[in-house]
Amino acid sequence: MTRMLAASVVLAAVASLGAQSPVVNAVVEKRTASADFARDVQTVATRPTPAWIGYRVPIARRVEVAMQSVESCCGRCRLAPSSDLVVLARVQNGAILELRPLAVDCDMDAAGMPLIWFDGVNPDASVAWLSTLVTQTGDARRVGDRALSAISQHAGSAAATALVRFAQSGTTEVRGRALFWLADRAADQALPTINATLQKDPDTEMKKMAVRALSRFPNDEGIPRLMEVARSHDNAEVRRQAMLQLGQSKDPRVVDFFAGILLK
Q1: d(CA 14, CA 12)
Q2: What's the rounded mean pLDDT across residues 124-139?
Q3: What is the domain partition of the chain in residue ranges?
């Protein structure tokens, strides 16, 4: 009887949450986010036993599974394009142990763990909280990587502003990852930062990362700038990197570009 009652509680909670969360098999507690969302998270995170925190915000665009920063879907997947991003964080004793940004066409099994689901999270507040996790190192680096990935998937200008900030300052690793994700957004948001890196950054590795970011622009929008860099950048390694990125493109402009070089 006890088991049946517990199962009923879980199923009822999931049913009531179905429109908000893709998480199944969870003991759900719903809350409304306050103006200080970071404090909301910290309050839950102080629990001595592990729990999940979850919320959803508008997504910048249909997110494809990329690298290790976004989990592949291992449960039920829906065919309709996602309009929202779900952010899930596993917390305990004041720490963020795990972070998962997910498109809402995927179901995640919480294995019976508590899920504190926040309604009404402001996307800018979400970006602000995630930004505090990005520069973590050591064992928490994986959380930092995923926090930056989650920021990149947020709709709105706050996400682009945060990515630009991380691309302009901090460690080479964080700056490079920020450029990587920034390039997935609109080219006009990414190009000024990438150009500044190519022209002014003293670190050759950062310049090469900027070149790789150009190759990630949607709809091959980075091809013209890549050709300019390959022709005229004053750093031979950067020119070589641009050539390598162009060589992986199937854009017909690239064929003409290489033909012009070979025929000289």
Answers
A1: 5
A2: 92
A3: 1-121, 155-264
With cut-offs at 50, 70 and 90, classify the pLDDT of residue 207: very high
Q: What six digits make up the tokens of 60?
A: 């910048």
| Owner of token pair 């300019």 | 228
Q: Phi then psi for 133, rounded to 5 degrees?
A: -100, -15
Q: What amino acid occupies position 196?
A: A
Establish how many alpha carbons lie within 13 A of residue 190's alpha carbon, considering only the half-sphere containing its beta carbon: 27
pLDDT mean over 151-165: 94
Residue whose token pair is 């919480």: 110
**pLDDT greater than 80 at residue 135:** yes
**Considering the domain 155-264 in this protein, what is its CATH number?**
1.25.10.10
Contact 51, 92 (CB under 8 A): yes
Per-position DSSP letters for 114-159, written without gaps between them: EEEEEES--HHHHHHHHHTTTT--GGGHHHHHHHHHHHHTB-SHHH
The DSSP annotation for 49-67 comes to S-EEEEEEEEBSSPPPP-T
Of 21-25, 191-195, 206-210, the one with minimum mean pLDDT is 21-25
* Residues 192-229 as b or e (16 or more Cβ within 10 Å = b): ebbeebbeebeeeebbbbbbbbbbbbeebbbbebbbeb
Instruction: Give CA–CA dist 235/116, Å, rounded.
Output: 51
Whether 257 shows a pLDDT value over 60: the answer reads yes
164: number of Cβ within 10 Å: 18
- Residue 110 CA to residue 14 CA, distance in Å, equals 11
Confidence label for 76 from pLDDT (cuts 50, 70 and 90): low
